[in-house]
Amino acid sequence: MATTKTLYDLLAKKEPEAAEQVEQDKRLKRVLDRLCALLAKNKKAQPALTATLLWKTIAIRTDAAVAEGEKCEALFKEFTQKVAGHFGTDGGHLFQIGPQKDPVRIYEKAGDD
Predict the structure, then answer these.
(1) pTM
(2) Per-residue pLDDT tens for 15-28?
(3) Which of 48, 45, 12, 5 is nearest to 29 (CA)?
């Protein structure tokens, strides 16, 4: 069964620079951890499932949503600031805009619905 450490080790052997980037980037680490957890969760029902196959499936199903979310991010922030401006504030204490969901989380949420 793949664990995060196993995937880090495989990545380090094949792509040392990418492995170093994952080590330094907390968001990438979370995505990799989530991928491993999802793989473990689905392994009994799909014994032939690998991290590579799961990632390809996730990428195919989420790439468009991630790309559109990135395109709309600046527009969304501008809109929320304008709405907050109607209340006489910059919105900082009314709401906080979080980061976009990562591809694994989008895939999980879509499966939950």
Answers:
(1) 0.69
(2) 777 767 766 777 88
(3) 5
From the DSSP assignment, how many helices (H) and strands (E) are in the chain? Answer: 5, 0
Q: Token pair for residue 40?
A: 């473990």
- The C-alpha atoms of residue 61 and residue 55 are separated, in whole angstroms, by 10
Q: How many beta carbons lie within 10 A of that of residue 1, not counting itself? A: 7
Closest CA to 72 of 52, 90, 48, 97: 97
In order, the DSSP letters of 9-29 are HHHHHH-HHHHHHHHH-HHHH
CB–CB of 23/8 below 8 Å? yes
Are 40 and 1 spatial neighbours (Cβ–Cβ below 8 Å)? yes
